[in-house]
Write a structure and sequence with these properties.
Elements: H1 2-12, E1 18-20, H2 24-30, E2 36-38, E3 49-52, H3 56-66, E4 73-76, H4 83-89, E5 93-98, E6 108-113, H5 119-128, E7 129-134, H6 139-147, H7 149-166, H8 171-191, H9 196-203, H10 210-220, H11 222-246
Parallel strand pairs: 1-2, 3-4, 4-5, 6-7
Antiparallel strand pairs: 5-6
Helix pairs in contact: 6-11, 7-8
Bound molecules: NADPH dihydro-nicotinamide-adenine-dinucleotide phosphate and (2S)-3,4-dihydro-2H-pyrrole-2-carboxylic acid.
NADPH dihydro-nicotinamide-adenine-dinucleotide phosphate binds near residues 20, 56 and 100.
Family: Belongs to the pyrroline-5-carboxylate reductase family.
Catalytic activity: L-proline + NADP(+) = (S)-1-pyrroline-5-carboxylate + NADPH + 2 H(+); L-proline + NAD(+) = (S)-1-pyrroline-5-carboxylate + NADH + 2 H(+)
Subcellular location: Cytoplasm
Length: about 250
Amino acid sequence: MGGAFIKGLHQSGGYSVTACDVDEAVLETISPYCDRTTTELSVAAESEVVVLALKPDLVGAILSDLELTADQTLLSIAAGVSTELLESKTEATVVRIMPNLAAEYGMMAAAVTESTVTDEIRAILDAVGEFVEVSESKMDIATAVNGSGPAFVFYLINAMAEAGVDGGLSPEDARTLAAQTFKGAAETVLQSDRSIEDLIDAVCSPKGTTIEGMDVLWDSDVEAEVGEAVAAAEERSKELAQDAADE
Ligand SMILES: NC(=O)C1=CN([C@@H]2O[C@H](COP(=O)(O)OP(=O)(O)OC[C@H]3O[C@@H](n4cnc5c(N)ncnc54)[C@H](OP(=O)(O)O)[C@@H]3O)[C@@H](O)[C@H]2O)C=CC1
Ligand SMILES: O=C(O)[C@@H]1CCC=N1
C-alpha cells in the first residue's frame, strides 16, 4: 500500500518523498517514483509528514522507536490501529486514514477519522483520490468497504470477465469490457443524482436482456453474500484493533 501511495504522489508531483523499507528489493522497485530510498528508519526525523505503511502489529513498537516530534505529522494507514493508540505512542499530530490501492492511479477512496485532517494532509489526500471523514468508531466498517473493497470488486470483475470468456470473447477483450464496465458504472453512480435502483431500471429495457440477468441476481441474493464479505472484513478489523490494544 505504501508503494501505491508513493506512485500516486509521484504522478501528481509537488512532493519530495523518501521511501524507507527494510528490504532493498522493495526499495529498488519504488526508487523510480521517489526522491530518495533508505533502509534507515531514522530518516523519519527529517520529514514533515511520516506515512506509516507497516503491518498493524508492527506499528506500536516502531512508532515508539521513531520518536517523532510535535512539529511533525504522522499519517497512519494501518487497519485496526486506533487514533488513541497512535497518540499514546507519539508526540506528532496523528491523522488516521484507511486508504485503498487505487491511490496508485489517483483514484483512491479513503476514510479519515473526522476532525483530525489538517490542510497539509488534505492536500496530500486530494492528490491521490477522494476521502470522506467518519467517526473513529466507523473506521472498521470503512476498512471493509473501501480498504478491502478493491479485492471484492476485482473478484466481481473477474467473474464477469470469465463469463465473457466462457461465451467466446478473448480473455483480453473480456477483461477490458468487464473492467471498463465497472469503471463506467462507478462513474455513473458518482456523477448522477439518480438512485441506484433508478439506474438499474434505466439499463433494463422492457422485455430486454438485462432484466433476465437481474432476475437471476435478485433470486440468488448476491447482495447478501457481498454483505457477508464486508461484515467478515469488518470483524477482522475489530480483531486487529483488539490485538493492537493488547500489545
Ligand atoms: N494492501 C492494501 O490494499 C491496504 C493496506 N493497508 C494497510 O497498510 C499497511 C501495510 O499493508 P500492506 O502494504 O498490504 O503490507 P506489506 O507487508 O505489503 O507492506 C509492508 C512493508 O513494510 C516493510 N517493513 C516491515 N518492517 C519494517 C521496518 N521495520 N521498517 C521499514 N519497513 C518495514 C515490509 O517488509 P517485509 O515484507 O520484508 O516485512 C513490507 O515491505 C497495513 O497496516 C494495512 O492495514 C491499508 C489499506 C489498504
Ligand atoms: O487486508 C488488509 O488487512 C488490508 C487493510 C485493508 C486492505 N488491506
